[in-house]
Amino acid sequence: MVTSPSNPAQAAATEALTNGLDDPVAMRKIYQKRRDFVEAAIKDMGLDMATPSGAFYAFVKIPEAFGTDDVRFAETLAKEAKVGGVPGSAFGAGGEGYIRFSYAASDENLHEAMKRLKNYVASLTTSQVD
């Protein structure tokens, strides 16, 4: 035998199977709460997103001011609002015009990110996007 699982990986698997069977139930509730918060905040900004049902990512339609240029929107959002997201086009042509945000973060960070995103989106209506 040339390779095998490392001792730490085996110990972690044993711990998970022995004492961690209820962990996913608790985490599911936490992620659902975060998802619901992010979804409400996004929709309150007038943006559209589908409700995720199996992951901790929000796939959000970018503001009309950017057309379908999700790369430009992600770059501008990062520079101006200090909020990170992945352009939807990174996931294929069907993702063009969208941005993906993760809500696998602390509640505090999510609240701050949604506040910054909201301020940024609001600023688009008062300024011209080049």
What does the largest sheet look like? 3 strands, antiparallel
Q: How far is the first residue's CA from the last residue's CA?
A: 61 Å
Q: Low-confidence parts, pLDDT < 50 over ≥5 residues?
A: none
Silhouette:
elongated
Q: Which homologous superfamily in CATH is the superfamily?
A: Aspartate Aminotransferase, domain 1
> Could you please say which CATH topology applies here?
Aspartate Aminotransferase, domain 1
Radius of gyration: 19 Å
Tally of discrete structural domains:
1
Helix content: 40-55%
Strand content: 5-15%
As an assembly, this protein is single chain
Q: Which CATH C-level class is it?
A: Alpha Beta
Gross CATH architecture: Alpha-Beta Complex
- The overall average pLDDT, rounded, is 93
What strand line-up does the widest sheet have?
1-3-2
H/E element sequence: HHEHEEH
Structure description:
This protein is mostly helical. The chain has one domain (30-121): Aspartate Aminotransferase, domain 1, CATH 3.90.1150. It is 52% helix and 9% strand. Helix 2 (23-44) packs parallel to helix 4 (107-126). The N and C termini lie far apart (61 Å). The model has no long low-confidence stretch (mean pLDDT 93).
